[in-house]
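Risk mitigation, structural track. In case the binding assays with beta-D-galactofuranose fail to produce interpretable data, a predicted complex structure has been prepared as a fallback.
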Amino acid sequence: MTIRRTFLGAAVLAIFATTAGSALANKPLVMGFSQVGAESEWRTANTRSIKEAAKKEGIILKFADAQQKQENQVKAIRSFIAQRVDVIAFSPVVESGWDTVLREARNAKIPVILTDRAVNAADKTLYTTFIGSDFVEEGRRAGRWLVEHAKKTPQRTLNIVELQGTVGSAPALDRQKGFAEAIAGHPNLKIVRSQTGDFTRAKGKEVMEAFLKAQGKNINVLYAHNDDMAIGAIQAIEEAGLKPGKDIVIVSIDGVKGAFEAMMAGKLNVTVECSPLLGPQLMKVARDIKAGRPVPKRIVTEEGVFPAEVAAKEYPNRKY
Ligand code: GZL
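Fallback model:
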């Protein structure tokens, strides 16, 4: 009798363990995502891509909008740790100040994926991988386009004003660096003013108004770190009675639909693509990490450069 009871007990235990095991294996992956905010067309498209990809993959997404404040992102990450999510992903609004909270995630054994923007943490083990663009190269591409454009009037000095992105953010720091690198050695290209427009249309317009007041007709080129600030600046240029895209050549970055519409209207000269469509890659990497598959430390998104001449042809293909 005892043997039979033991055998029966073992069989029940085995069935329970298998059921529990398969239930665990089938438990949907839970991702905590802290987003920078909703500051630009680019960011809206990025959020849409992430939410759609999570839904398509059956991943439970806990999404927090930080309204461009680092303290809100830190709070969100701590909340994800407390909720014991399977993986944390975020786009850090600025490069520094993340080590403490990332150590807390590592101590909780929750993997962290950086998307879109990087952190400048010395300890690279604080995150598993970084999926995003090469912002320095984006700045170089903007500068190279201008160098080629300026060859049409080699004797002219072109005064450049620069609308920079969010202070301390990776895209702002890197796009400034890449552009300066590309125009170095071309003394006829001079940056005469630089100021942050925080990646928004409203601030881009406000700062461009100030540039125009200070520099007047001596502005030949605007270099904007994103299309939203360029679009805001276009309004300021028109209100000052000047022709954007003609009196002031405009070089921008992101490649959002609004930039293509401005190029088709002859008001913007070129946009350097920075793809926000990171959702599918993010969800695949999250699954790979949870399954114990190796992932590269750095995943760079492929991008192009779109001058006004190709805008009308390319516009129907744009996904953001
Ligand atoms: C770049 C992204 C930047 C965009 C802006 O990857 O972080 O932030 O260029 C957005 O439009 O606000």
